[in-house]
Predict the 3D structure of the following.
Amino acid sequence: MRARSIAWRLALAFAAVCALVLSAIGVFLYRSLAAEIAWRDDMALLGRLEQVRALLADSDSLDALQARPRLYQNMLGNLDSLLLVQRADGSNVITINPRQRALPPVQAIPRDQPPQRRDVLTWQAADGVELALLSGQAQGPNGEALTVIAGKVLSEREQMLGSYRLRLYLAVSLGALLAFTLGLVLLRRGLRPLRKLSEALRGIDLRSLDQRVPTAGTPAELLEPVHALNGMLVRLDDGFQRLSQFSADLAHEIRTPLHTLLASNGQALNHPRSSTEYQEVLASNMEEFERLKRMAENLMFLARAEQAERALDLRTLELHQIGEELCDYFEALADDREIRLENTFSGELLADQQLLQRALGNLLANAVRHADAGSVISLRRRDEPGLCWLQVHNLGPVIADEHLGKLFDRFYRVDPSRAEPGDSGGLGLAIVQSIMQLHGGRVRVSSEVEGTVFELGFPLEVPRRVNSHD
């Protein structure tokens, strides 16, 4: 289905509005003209009645008036005007009726009453022609009572108004057509920036995500959408770069255990070995498989977290109890390195218990792995307005500033050579960050001579898209 053109639709709407406005103006002018013509005709009839009354009153005899019919015809001036002067017995003294039209009975106004517009009668003949009639009493020579009927056929008025209506129809039609044409031309010229924007966007693909839509010469109405598009391109470029880097890092991380498995199995197959040696090879292989399994599970968790597929099961948790359980879990690993775990958590926190334990567990595992032997790892709580900060503090090598901003990236290690069996494959801190994003919180790290501190900032308000339980 062909898409509808915005320019055509707006041009049609503009033409319709212009036609409506022109029609309203035309109706006003037409009614004004019709009212003006009607007023003029009525005034002519009123004046004619007064003139005939005065003429009859000043005449010496009716015979003299009857002998001069052409005078009255010239006074009327056209074939559409009527003039009748009748005696009391109904006989006509003066009859000016060029088309011999039959007239209806008309109520005559008294002689001493001046005629008004309301006294004019509009009457339609059998052939559909309208007439304006006015009748009044008059006094003839010797005080004789007479009746004067003045009239006018309105055909000329109707013809004039009909011609005016036709011109109005033509003017409105031509005005609407002109408005549509000019509107379409102007709209197409005005939409040129959109076409340029489309051309600029068509030139951006996966290999040119660093390009941006130019803002120079862009109309003010399109600046905000252009800035939004450029912002979207920045996010897409960043996401694509992160995805590319993630793919490369994932290939690198998987290659190491796969290379180890292939090498150990190849050596085991090339030379006969005892059952004990085969068991050692299988045990080594199991460690690599466990490493691959943890990596796959962590990647699946990160994918679900980024797609917001997991709803938080928020509960009010006793932080001291959570800290005790974590310390008990890592106690054996800490004892091997003569590290003491100190739990000073206190109070309550609204959070998902499993995710909180996983985030703190990842931080504790990382702290135990990198803390100095014989040192203390402490769990602390610090509150700020709107945030509850949970801290994991350990004494160990200072992390350089250039590494601090990358610690939560996937597969990033400050020292790749220190990868140990049982670690998270470089995904532990990335998982911590995803957990905090699910909670609507923050994560940060600082490292100085006094120690390294990882902090989890939980909001004191319930985030959106969660299931909370008291």
The first strand starts at residue 81 and ends at 87. The radius of gyration is 52 Å. Residues 6-162 form a domain with the Beta-Lactamase fold (CATH 3.30.450).
